[in-house]
Amino acid sequence: MQVYLPIAELSVDVFLLLGLGGLIGFLSGLFGVGGGFLMTPLLIFIGVPPAIAVATQSTHVVASSVSGVLAHWKRGNVDVKMGAILLGGGFVGSTLGVGLFTVLRSIGQIDLVISLSYVVLLGTLGVMLMLEGARAMMRRRSQSRPGKLHSHNWAHGLPLKTRFRKSRLYISALVPLAIGFGVGMISSLMGVGGGFILVPLMIYVLGMPTSVVIGTSLFQIIFVSANVSFLQASQNQAVDLVLALLLVAGGVIGAQFGGRLGAKLPGEMLRLLLGLLILCVGAKLLIDLLVPPEDIYSLGLS
Length: 302
Known about the structure:
- It is a single chain.
- The chain has ten helices and four strands.
- By secondary structure, it is mainly α.
- It has one domain.
- Helix 2 runs antiparallel to helix 3 (50-73), helix 3 runs parallel beside helix 9 and helix 7 packs antiparallel against helix 8.
- The longest helix is centred in the middle third of the chain and has 33 residues, at 110-142.
């Protein structure tokens, strides 16, 4: 059954969109990511213009993250204090990022910037997560003593130190604030919640336990993505509500199942699987950039 997307200006099968929403919602609850790093490329693959995919995906991230964070909240796996500080930086970063998005779109470079950003970030993070996950699994099997989750560096000497009891940390609030700002910028430019970047940073830079990272990541993603959605709709008129509602319908259900499964899998397995998934998406985008299109000359609106 086909449905017409008025802002994207194309017809797409309803069940395909519901299935995509459910899949991304499941991954959101499983890995603690908004799912936009996968949904935005998938929407581009089925013909949705990159600018519309980025803007609309933010609304789906909000819904799937709300559903996912509820599952983790019930288990006490959300550090609200850490999430609030990340959120402060995220609001500022996402607001500035939407402004940059508007400028790039006006000069016709936003599609290229989106694709290149995905290839670079997904490739780097995917390799890092897979290597770390594989090392952790090898240590577990050999029953060797695990290394430190993070090491003390210059960041731990910064001022404004505060205690995060849920995460069992005593670090400067400037570090999560800066991380939130950077992730907010990326969220607005790439149509993602930023969890695929935020989760590794929370684990390896902040040193948070994996069990707390997932719920806290989703908590921050909700509000930053909501801010991006509002700004994209008001400034760029790029949010397709029909597309967003169909993605949300599938995503809310999928996130509940992902949250339940995520609570049963060990942290190193989650990192390995997430790294593999990120690499696959990045490879597909790189191939699309390198392979010449069948029709070199085309007319279209971004």
